[in-house]
Amino acid sequence: MSTEEKSLPIKKIVAGVIFAISALMLSTVTPSIEIAWVSGILALTIYLFAFEIVGVDVAAVSIMVLLGLSSLLAPYLGLSTGLVENKHLFDGFSSNAVMSIIAVMIIGAGLDKTGLMSKVAGVILKVGGTTEKRIIPIISGTVGIISSFMQNVGAAALFLPVVNRISVRSGLPMSRLLMPMGFCAILGGTVTMVGSSPLILLNDLILTSNKALPAANHMETWSLFSVTPVGMALVATGILYFVFLGKYVLPVSSSDKKTDTADTKDYFLNIYGIDYEFFEVIVPEKSDLVGKHLDDIENEHKVRIIAAQSKTENLRTDRGTISRDMDIETDTRLGILASPKNLLAFSEKFNLELLSSLDAFSDAFSTAKSGIAEIVIPPSSKLLGKSARDLWMRKTYGLSVVALHRNGETLREGDNIRDMPFKAGDTLVVHTNWDSLTRLKNDPDFVVVTTEYPHEEVRPNKVGYAGFFFAIALGLVLFSDLRLSIALLTGALGMVLSGVIKIEEAYTAVSWKTVFLLASLIPLGLAVETSGTAKWIAEQTLSVVGDMPVWVIQSAVAILATFFTLVMSNVGATVLLVPLAVNIAIGVGANPAIFALTVAIATSNSFLIPTHQVNALIMGPGGYRVPDFLKAGGIMTILFLIVSMTMMNIIF
Q1: Torsion, CA 143, CA 148, CA 149, CA 155, rounded to 10
Q2: Whether pTM exceeds 0.85
């Protein structure tokens, strides 16, 4: 199917939305000139987002500037003033939402710098393996539960580095993991009454409405877990949706990291003929390998043991903690680098248990931490004339020599490469930890040829500070009345001042594309609300369904809330629609509290375009485009409406 054919459904959806807006503008109730212009700009925004004439951030900035120019062009447009006052045009950049998302990005990066997120990723991989159908439910379910008690954008930002680590280690593209995680973070906000801003606000709006209602129509407020059955059903729906339909709706492009890993493997195979892979084996009690030293077996059997873990000793790797004189004990786990052919022969000879995938060593052997590299011995090196055995290369430098290339010939295990004195120009193919390789770049005895490898600075000694300031931020969010942005910035600033993350790294951690996208759209939401456009659209739509059954009217309220939350803040949509929904419910003899709850829940149905904070957050790292959200989010939007309406009518 061609790209043009694939985009036809998306074009039809966009055309339908623009047509609906146009139809409303041409309805029997004539809108004001302000409403007409705002509706036109709203249609233009949807068009720019859907067809990606320019990047979504550029489109958002363009709309913001256009709203600003309306003040200058007001006399020519038939307006008394601009659509948005210029003094409020840039309020988005200092808004609670934007400052909060900046803070959570910094907090997430700080936690990642300590290696904590890497450990969390290791646990998830150990439980879920490396398949989408097992990893997606674990990640998405965890984020969904966390976001039920904290802001969903915070939960998503917290797990962003975790998903990145999992992607690197499992080989699964980020685009296959981030969208399920992000969508379930949004869905998790419906599990409790503190999971999202609209639900937090709902009880206050109910109490305000009660003041204007007769005593007979007064509504009871909702308790913390009143919405839990509905929210849990929505989270479960999101997980099942991606487990069973993910292969059809998620982008299929490979991640850069996966490609880099594959290219590296092909490089060493083509240049040196090395087809080595990582394996994990367990030494049983009756194996002849028990009691032997590493030095007794590696050369003869053409394998390289680069990690070991026994019942009496913790994990030892080639980072300088494993050496050739190490004894092999019963039930020891060995991490082996070898060709599949040699590994199978070695396993059969010593009756070893070969695991189908890495278990204890999945973290140590991840491409984010270690890999194969090239090192050249320069003419000025002090190591000339000495062998790898003389130097105890593995123990001293953290290098496991896999091959030695000399005079156009590549020598491997079995050729006694560790006993050969080094000569100027020798190229060593080694397995090493990236931290060790980084240190060797400053060692005059080596020339590190490999340059493309992860060599970020990790600060495990700062994990206490990171955990402390994260706990402070979380505590302020949950147990204080501080604005979300102030609570989160407290944690972010604490991490910077304590050295968990440097200020330059903090700036780098922020996705400025996301910041400009969100901040530039806030004036459009303000224009939709203050011009009366939102109220006018709501009144026109509800007038059409006013004589229909209650469930149809309730569904229309949910659809309206869904539409408004795409183009304005979910809080603004809730404040606008709850009073309307309450009055409509009373007019048709329905429960006004349930209609108010319908609005608050439906404002989380924000999956079609990346205007929700969570969608904006994952768009860059996942490499998503607006059509990706329209494709996956379109079905999710319909499922959300069906499940939420069904559950609310069953329970309430």
Answers
A1: 30
A2: no
